[in-house]
């Protein structure tokens, strides 16, 4: 059968893995699809750079239009990242009838619906399995495996870099900047790791998962985001002492037809399956009304794990091409978006306060919670070895976020509360 010809945009961590998997697994790929996969041209920024993969210099180009205008190329695999010029390249390739496989969550979270609409008009496939949770086939699972169910909650550890950093900080007491450097060297972190550590990368992935899971067009701005850069060793110590692990969790929830999507450091009870997801591993917990609890686990970043998802998408394009059904399986979000208000979003909270160590302080603090109908589950007071203040660690019962904001605002007016050090979500 005629080979499927691929133009690869990018030969970095993921692009190298894609070439390697196609080279090493070609025989199996042909058996599955009937067509060999042939990478004919590869776009790079610097063609003279030394590469850790065997590709001929004739395949490399620094001019994207060499690939986009090549009438022989059937599929563009986009693993260069970024929004522009990447979006232009993809739209121009679709206009020329080329199918797209991408690992780019930044682009799909921001412009996914526009790209899908262009693809539908041209009967082209757009697959983006590697964009969420690297090597875990979670997009196909939610789209196809859950097609008969109604998903009400998705909780995910969907950023490998931050999970790697938090695991090292928790298990080895490692230093934050040092572990971040390691994650960069291992190819896990984004070109600008701010998007990893400030939770934006996870927010993009949660917007994609919530859109697919709830059939609602969830925009990046709909996701409330808090990163890990201000997590201290005290936060980690107290979380663990109280029986929790501290993780950067994305949580998308639906009640009736109102939804909320958040990314924030979250204390998760030891014993919950997500609490033992460590290192660069990702996991996505999906609750379906009919099926109940499910969880999907695997490497969330890195050369070969991510490339397996990219090449699996190529196999899907190839099968569709052979059957003549490209672009026919796309379901656009069909439900109207209704975001939950702060009054409707409720969860337990962990709060670490520095307060003056004097009689009556705890009672004053308790009164603020009580005034705003926030009930307390546990309170721990610790002397602080480094200064005369005391540390108070509170876990609330489930409280709506409007009330919590009033409580935290009122603390800023109390002389006895020196500092609200941290506030995190708690999931049992
Ligand atoms: P990377 O290592 O930085 O590689 C980027 C590649 O694209 C390089 O080969 C670079 O060329 C090329 N490139 C970048 N901008 C270009 C431009 N304007 N023109 C031409 N070539 C350009 O990136 P990566 O880690 O492989 O990530 C690629 C994509 O996959 C991103 O969207 C990322 O978010 C996503 N992703 C990554 C992982 C992971 O584990 N790394 C996991 C899932 C998804 P040179 O080689 O010449 O510099
Ligand atoms: N920087 C991302 C992560 C790569 O650490 O999870 C995978 O999307």
Strand and helix layout:
Elements: E1 4-9, H1 13-24, H2 26-33, E2 37-43, E3 60-61, H3 64-68, E4 75-78, H4 86-95, E5 99-102, H5 105-121, E6 126-127, H6 138-145, E7 151-157, H7 160-172, H8 176-185, H9 194-197, H10 200-214, E8 223-225, H11 233-241, E9 244-255, E10 258-269, E11 281-288, E12 292-299, H12 303-323, E13 346-355, H13 361-371, E14 376-383, E15 390-396, E16 399-400, H14 401-411, E17 417-427
Parallel strand pairs: 1-2, 1-4, 2-3, 4-5, 5-6, 8-10, 10-17
Antiparallel strand pairs: 7-9, 7-11, 9-10, 11-12, 13-15, 13-16, 13-17, 14-15
This protein binds NADP nicotinamide-adenine-dinucleotide phosphate and L-homoserine (HSE).
Describe this structure in words.
Strands 7, 8, 9, 10, 11, 12, 13, 14, 15, 16 and 17 form an eleven-stranded mixed beta sheet that branches. The chain has a six-stranded parallel beta sheet with strand order 3-2-1-4-5-6, sandwiched between helices. The termini are far apart. It has three domains: 4-134 and 303-323, 3-Layer(aba) Sandwich (Rossmann fold), CATH 3.40.50; 145-299, Dihydrodipicolinate Reductase, domain 2 (2-Layer Sandwich), CATH 3.30.360; 346-427, ACT domain (Alpha-Beta Plaits). The chain is of the alpha/beta class and 428 residues long. Helix 4 (86-95) links the parallel strand 4 (75-78) and strand 5 (99-102). It is built from 14 helices and 17 strands. 36% of the residues lie in helices and 26% in strands. The structure holds NADP nicotinamide-adenine-dinucleotide phosphate and L-homoserine (HSE). The site of NADP nicotinamide-adenine-dinucleotide phosphate has 26 residues, from helix 1.
């Amino acid at each position: 059968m005629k080979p499927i010809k691929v133009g690869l945009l990018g030969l970095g961590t993921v692009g190298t893995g894609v070439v390697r998997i196609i080279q090493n697994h070609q025989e199996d790929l042909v058996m599955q699809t009937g067509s060999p996969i042939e990478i004919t041209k590869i776009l790079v920024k610097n063609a003279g750079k030394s590469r850790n993969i065997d590709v001929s210099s004739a395949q490399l180009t620094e001019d994207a239009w060499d690939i986009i205008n090549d009438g022989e190329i059937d599929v563009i695999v986009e693993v260069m990242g970024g929004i522009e010029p990447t979006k232009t390249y993809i739209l121009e390739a679709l206009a020329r009838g080329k199918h797209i496989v991408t690992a780019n969550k930044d682009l799909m979270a921001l412009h996914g619906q526009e790209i899908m609409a262009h693809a539908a008009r041209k009967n082209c496939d757009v697959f983006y399995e590697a964009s969420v949770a690297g090597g875990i086939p979670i997009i196909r699972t939610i789209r196809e495996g859950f097609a008969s169910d109604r998903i009400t909650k998705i909780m995910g550890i969907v950023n490998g870099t931050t999970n790697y950093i938090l695991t090292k900080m928790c298990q080895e007491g490692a230093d934050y900047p040092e572990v971040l450097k390691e994650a960069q060297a291992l190819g896990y972190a984004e070109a600008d790791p701010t998007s990893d550590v400030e939770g934006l990368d996870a927010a993009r992935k949660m917007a994609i998962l919530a859109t697919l899971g709830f059939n609602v067009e969830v925009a990046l701005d709909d996701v409330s985001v808090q990163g890990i850069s201000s997590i201290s060793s005290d936060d980690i110590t107290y979380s663990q002492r109280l029986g929790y692990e501290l993780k950067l969790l994305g949580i998308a929830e639906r009640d009736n037809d109102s939804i909320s999507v958040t990314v924030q450091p979250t204390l998760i009870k030891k014993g919950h399956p997500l609490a033992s997801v460590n290192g660069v591993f990702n996991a996505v917990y999906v609750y379906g009304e009919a099926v109940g609890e499910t969880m999907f686990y695997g490497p969330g970043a890195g050369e070969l794990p991510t490339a397996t998802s990219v090449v699996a998408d190529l196999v899907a394009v190839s099968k569709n091409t052979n059957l003549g059904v490209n672009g026919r399986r796309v379901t656009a979000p069909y439900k109207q978006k209704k975001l939950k208000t702060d009054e409707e979003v409720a969860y337990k909270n962990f709060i670490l306060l520095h307060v003056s160590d004097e009689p009556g302080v705890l009672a004053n603090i308790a009164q603020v919670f009580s005034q705003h109908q926030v009930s307390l589950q546990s309170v721990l007071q610790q002397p602080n070895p480094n200064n005369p203040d005391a540390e108070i660690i509170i876990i609330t019962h489930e409280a709506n976020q409007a009330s919590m904001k009033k409580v935290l605002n009122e603390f800023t007016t109390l002389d006895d509360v020196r500092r609200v050090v941290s506030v995190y979500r708690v999931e049992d």
